[in-house]
Amino acid sequence: MHVQECARWYSAKSGKTYVVPRYLYGLEVQICTKADIYELEKLQRKIFRQFLSLPERTASSALYILLGAEPVETILDRNMLSLFLTISRLDNAIEKKILQWELEIGKDFTESFINRIDKILNKYSLPNPKEILENPPSKYKWKNMLKKAINTYWSNIWKEECLIKTTIKYLTIQENPTENPHNIWKAARNNQNDIRKAEFKSRLITGTYMLQTTKAKFSKNQISGICELCTRAEEDIKHFLLDCESLESVRLKQMNKLLSLTELKGGGDKANYKEEDVLQIIMDCSKLSTTSLSHLKANDLIEIEKQSQNFCHQMHKERTKMQTR
Distances from the Cα of 322 to the Cαs of 194, 227, 233, 264, in angstroms? Predict the structure, then answer.
């Protein structure tokens, strides 16, 4: 299926199923340096940016969060652990005896297979190699343990990045982020109109939509950051979505639809949202875990996300139209 005709997360999922296993085939038994993994991840991120129609400057963590994808580093770790678990279940096999021997000689050979496995298990806070060799977990138990450990590991790293990088401060880390596409792309059906809206929302949520403050930053203030439409204030994300008087007619119409749906899904009561909460609902409603939205089901959040995408896209269309007059 052509990438322009299907949701991007579906394209990424297809790539994970059919492409990634081929270009990483056999690497679990080789010693990959950090430089090797970096080059593989650079290629992976380039492909993801093409899937999402995002620029080079997009935060790496945002690509994985939006698509619900694993970094190459973790795919290689998973493959190595899979091989290790397979061997650990082969009682009396020569391969298992070799691993037990490597375990006995300890840290003398830092690049031995068992020592590399030990580092991986420690990274994800999993049982050590000795415990697993002596008492291998069942396939079902191991699958759940590894899934939880990997998602916890990357959730913590990406949450930290979202706190540090202001461009992605509105982006939510969803449950099981390495295998669960973000609501922005879950809300997009396989048609060009929905995909166009999700692409635009992805640029907003990653801070790569070209507002006047962004232009000013990249031009080292040779270009003014003042909004070209109303000329009253700097055009940042808040001004564009909430404050610009020139966009007020479109904003009011779309905002009423969005907040009415949000109140309906939240229980039907009239809500008095703070300005920062309204901005967060527009950008990514699933992040408001401390409000009346905290109890909403996944489908409710996706419905709100769809309406949010309509809001953002209509604002973008009106802004573009006014700029070209």
Answer: 23, 12, 17, 33
Residues 6+ apart with CB under 8 A from 68: 9, 12, 174, 176, 177, 178, 179, 180, 181, 182
Say if residues 39 and 90 touch (Cβ distance below 8 Å).
no
Nearest to 308 by CA among 271, 265, 274: 265
CB 244 within 8 A of CB 238: no
CA–CA gap between residue 131 and residue 92 (Å, rounded): 17
d(CA 245, CA 229): 8
Q: Whole-model pTM?
A: 0.89
Q: What is the pLDDT of residues 177-195, one digit of tens each?
A: 999 999 999 999 888 899 9
Q: Are 288 and 301 in contact (CB under 8 A)?
A: no
Listed in sequence order, the residues at least 6 apart from 115 whose beta carbon sits closer than 8 Å to its beta carbon are 102, 107, 109
Tell me phi and psi for residue 24, to 5 degrees: -110, 5
* CA–CA dist 102, 161 (Å, integer): 37
What is the C-alpha separation between 241 and 312, in angstroms, rounded? 8
For residue range 9-36, what is the model confidence (pLDDT) as tens digits?
A: 555 555 555 456 666 766 766 777 788 8
Measure the CA–CA gap between 292 and 137, rounded to whole angstroms: 41
Q: Which residues contact 262 (CB under 8 A, 6 or more apart)?
A: 271, 281, 285, 293, 304
Q: State how far the Cα of 306 lies from the Cα of 312, in Å rounded to an integer.
A: 10
Alpha helices in the chain (DSSP H): 8-18, 20-23, 34-52, 60-67, 72-88, 94-104, 113-123, 129-134, 139-164, 183-186, 192-205, 212-218, 237-238, 248-265, 275-284, 298-323
- Tokens for 255? 């905002």
Q: Which two tokens stand for residue 128?
A: 């050590």
Q: What is the rounded distance in angstroms from the CA atom of residue 73 to the CA atom of residue 80?
A: 11
